[in-house]
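The freezer alarm interrupted the setup, so I double-checked each line after restarting. Inputs confirmed:
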Amino acid sequence: MNCEIEQVGGALVVKLKGEIDQHCAEELRGDIDRQLDIKHSASLIIDLGGVDFMDSSGLGLIMGRYRKMQARGGKLLLARPTPAVDKLLELSGINRLVGRERTK
Amino acid sequence: MRNYMKLEIPSKSLNEAFARAAVGAFAAQTDPTVEELADIKTSVSEAVTNSIIHGYRDTVGVIYIECEARVENTCVIEITVRDEGVGIPDVERAMEPLFTTAPDEERSGMGFTVMQSFMDTLDVTSEKGKGTTVKMSKAINIGTRDEELETRTGLPKSASEAHFLGKRSQPEAGETSLPARKRTSVGIGDDGC
Ligand SMILES: Nc1ncnc2c1ncn2[C@@H]1O[C@H](COP(=O)(O)OP(=O)(O)OP(=O)(O)O)[C@@H](O)[C@H]1O
Ligand SMILES: [Mg+2]
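Predicted 3D structure, all chains:
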């Protein structure tokens, strides 16, 4: 798992690449939350375009970030999930809660 | 035709990727679609992760994985993931969507729901203090693939057995699309979160 984090305007953009499971979820969560706290980003965009595997640990990670953003009055957007990841997001109901970033 | 494999791994989280890759490689012999293979790998990851983080919460134990592929008219993959950990006091409750005993660790309580929805059958037996066995199976529909193969190659359907455990384990163009099969949404968020 590899993750690039970049502040673009008011948004923290997190580009994830590789496989998300519980082995890497905790470290990812730490990386993202640390940046959110430093940058005080109004929104968080998680780009899932490079994620070729995800299980429910990824759902927990996304839901956790959703709650964190909600608690601070910000929002979370997801971008470019692959069909397999989208299937999981759909099953979990996350797609009904979290918006999509449509650009690129 | 029947094929099988058995695997024993210590319950270290680094083995999650190994376990699903190993089972995925075994399952790939039966020529699944990209989606079927992804479903199998995700379900194995769920079961193995559960053994690691719940079953052997404060210790390191052994996880036993067994896979069997049977081919008659269709091909069925059966996977068993077993641990000798703490066990589940109430299996029915544990299998409910969103139920988790570790909410503070950002667990979503979706593991069993994922296995249930991505596989065709799921059977969980557990005894407190003794451990947990998760048995799941999925049919790999070589019937429809035969027709596909027939049109493409001109070979008769009887070639179906020949291509099992054989050639085509690579995804093909156009196979990544997701049919709406068994895709029902349960709701994170329905509990008002
Ligand atoms: N192998 C196991 N040993 C002991 N308890 C288990 C085992 N597998 C599951 N459980 C129990 O069943 C509950 C539900 O499991 P499930 O996989 O559905 O959700 P989770 O693991 O809590 O969260 P998620 O899978 O979404 O990260 C767990 O919280 C745990 O209490
Ligand atoms: Mg789980």
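Quick read of the result. Chain B touches chain A at residues 13-14, 16-17, 20, 34-35, 38, 41-42, 45-46, 49, 52-53, 105-108, 110-111, 113-114, 117, 176-178, 183-190, 193 (CB under 8 Å).
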